[in-house]
Model the fold of this input.
Amino acid sequence: MGYRTPSSTRADDAGALPPGPRMPQPLQALGWALRPLPFMEKCRRRYGDAFTLRVRRGRPWVFLSDPADVGKVLTISPELVRAGAGEANPLLVPLLGQRSVMLLDEPEHMAHRRFMLPAFHGARMRGYGEMMAQVAREQIASWPVGEPFALWPRMQAISNEVVMRATFGSTEGPRMDNLRALLQRLTDWLNDSSRLTLLATFGSQVLSRNRRFRELMAPVEAALLEEVRRRRAAGPRPEDEGILSMLEQAYDESGRPMTDQELRDELITLLSDGPTATSLSWTFERLLRHPEKMARLQAEVLGGEGEEYTEAVVKEILRLVPAVPVVMRGLVEPMELGGHTIPAGTLVAPAIYLVHHREDIYPRPFAFMPERFLASSAHRPGAGKGERTAENYAWLPFGSGVRRCVAATFAPLEMRHVIRAVIEQVELAAAPTGGVQRPTRSSVSFAPGDEAPVVVRRRRSPEERRRSGTGGDQPRPPAGASGPGKEEGASGPGGGGASVRSEGDTGTRAPHVGQTSSPAGAAVGD
Ligand code: HEM
Done:
């Protein structure tokens, strides 16, 4: 990537870097590939808030988990750091293409970002809200009733459709059906956890050289380019109103429109939204383990009592299982971080996951406690804690600074609409398939390993409930949940033997996948 490395402060000046494991580089690569989240946690416990890993040959990675350091890296002048997303996730370069906003450096990054931002602002967001609710209702209506199914693919179907409609406007017709099917095939293939582990170990070449990947990618690219060219030739039409039409009409400061290839890369970037689906799957996975929290949420949604608890659930899930656990930047200049002068050329990794699991900011960091985000809560991050508040880089699932997620309002809005639609339409129970939900790599995020198996039954409408005379907006624990004791219990959904570790402050055994042999082995907590 051509980082500048002044001879006095080269990235391999080990003395300048924070401490880290001494094990050989291939073993560090394996630790990262197989169990990235517990591996990071272990290193933080052992070496402190800033530590160095040698995941790839060559440049070391310096992980940061002090919010002050994280904030400094994310908000520093963008010319002083380079994009590192392709290093953090080797899938991104072959999938998104070099001209994706996520992978570009300044000043091009900012030019592309400016093209995109208007599509995620203000009045547009209100329109998206109704569309999101409608997509969710349509999809939920097609869920099987009374028989187990995996929630994660259903959540993917919802978020894929939402992002397609936001991007293209209308998604009806054979061309869109074809694109939907091609994207689905590609995503299914990419979401194979052993393939993703290989990729995490050996880097992006594993994918770019893979024949099957090229076979699946080529028709997606062709379909997108055809769509772009067709629309450009036809000119603007009201039914095509969406993010793509905004990108097509955007010009950079020199008056140049985006090229077809640039549009292709940005479209794939938008359409490969995995984080919203994994976050939604975790939301219900966690709620099903905490019947009293599910009941409180149901009471709010069905009683029309506002959105405070729903918002708190969304915030807590994005804290507990941040869909993008680490972001990365390449230092162009040396930088003071964690008491070290980190040399230019080093990759620094603000570890969102580690910040979100700091005991000093979030007491019982592995516990699912939406209540900590309620205004009235003494556990609210930062309440009575001086400097370290949620605002000061302690809650940053969407990153911060000039590369902050463009969908930082869009994604939580979608989550709230989908949660609401699910609760209004069905009663959920964990399917009795056994096993704790083990986080596993998905293409751009971490999904519940069992894909969150559930069983649903239709909830009667308020009208039906009135007619049957049972009143019935009374929320109750979902069928199959065994009451409050279950949240601290030792079994996963449906009572299968979960791997657990005790959480010191409760003295109980809480499911904690970080201690399991899960593929990603992430710590999600009780
Ligand atoms: C829960 C859902 C999501 C989470 C947690 C999430 C998280 C993130 C994070 C942490 C970054 C910053 C990466 C960095 O600093 O290097 C990012 C960037 C980005 N995200 Fe998201 N994201 C989500 C959903 C989405 C969706 C739905 C879209 C598009 C429809 C999207 C589009 C983007 C883009 C284009 C960027 C690059 C921004 C830039 O570099 O200027 N994200 N996302």
The radius of gyration is 23 Å. The chain has 21 helices and 14 strands. The first strand starts at residue 50 and ends at 53. Confidence is low (pLDDT under 50) at residues 1-14, 471-523.
